[in-house]
Amino acid sequence: MPYKINRFYFLAFLTWQFCILYVTQQIFGIFANYTPKWRCNANETFNSDCDVFVACDTGVEFEESPFHSASMDFEWICGSQAYVAALYNQLSFFGVLVGTFSFGALSDAVGRRPVAVLALCLSILSTLFSGLAPSWQLLLLSRFFVGLCCGGHVVGIYTYIMELLLPEQRMVLRGFFNWGNARIIFTVVCYIFPHWRSASIAYSFLVVPPLLAVLFVLPESPIWLHSKGRLDAMRASEKKMAWIAGLEYVVQERKPQQRSQKFMDIIRNPHYSKRLLVLWIMWFTASLCSYATDLNSSRISGNLFLNQMLFGVMLAISKVLLVTLDTLRSSFNRRRLHQYAQLSVCMCFFMLTVLLLLDYKGVAILVINLAGTVFNEYTWDACYLCAVEAMPTGMRASSLGSCSLVARVGALLSPTVDFSKNMPISAYIIKLNGLPS
């Protein structure tokens, strides 16, 4: 088969698809904070006027909504409680920030597989509690732990799956088992369970398949076992992989691993420290803009579920196109991919700014948002590829870790971008900051 894919690798691909599906909990605020129009009196038209919402003593009446959000239940819409909607997302992103540190360190110390099991078990419990939270305070607390588990997925489980795959299969993973597919399934789940509580509970059950795969099928990472000098366990793991694949086991000779350099070694090197600074700008800009765009996508006019489905479909198609281009063109230029993609995003932001100033609310806003989201995703791909290829092997782990940290800071700030909506030029300036890279 192409890329040497067999039963074992296909199972690893599916396991990661379920795991990245859980990571879409980072943008669950699209639905959890969705707010339809409202009115105070039956003879009024539905609108989004906060003055009406705050002044209404009898309680507002919401327009018929395709999804019942937490914002509707706890009234995180206008007035003194409006900030809670942003806090809901920020606590999730803060959890991701903490999770990348804690699960990454645990994964290096005790093993990829046990940490993957821990992250998946905690994912089930935290998401289930999130759907059952009796108060908004406990809901916010649970969202921190949901984010913590997402951090375990994007660092611990991602590293685990990457080490089970062949190097040439990693681009296949990004192309065919990716964020775009996860966005599609994410939208379908929320369509089938159109209440934030039932959707959260459904998500907890979707973590069961990857948990079963890791518990009963997938072995420990041979690369991690080799790094710890546990050669007998490494051979046993490789034999299990061959057995699952239906192949005869062949002993593989592994080269001694190069010692990873510490973060301060990179900072002291003028050549690589400059590269790292550019990578930080790239990752921060991509993270801030992509998450800010995603979290505010529910405000685009039109059908909520159709819009979100279009985002997922466009992302999935764009990933396949990128893999095809990378496969067919050996001279594929990562730097141009980043610059052209980010320039396109700047143009999309500029056009949206103009339409906002003109008070336009037609279908062009959706089309431009779709294009901008695709190019933002290409920017993410360029960030990952550049971070891997711009740094030597010994510095790669430390530099990627620092880039991930900077990206989490950008994600943490993304829910606050909405508060600058009265200054439409601000988003355009933020995106321009990353263009020189």
Automatic annotation (TrEMBL):
Coiled coil region boundaries: none
Cell compartments where the protein resides: Membrane
UniProt KW Transmembrane helix keyword: yes
Key words of the record: Membrane, Transmembrane, Transmembrane helix
Main localisation: membrane
Major facilitator superfamily (MFS) profile domain location: 10-437
A single GO cellular-component term on record: membrane
Molecular functions (GO terms): transmembrane transporter activity
Protein name: Major facilitator superfamily (MFS) profile domain-containing protein
Annotated organism of origin: Parascaris univalens (Nematode worm)
Higher taxonomy: Eukaryota, Metazoa, Ecdysozoa, Nematoda, Chromadorea
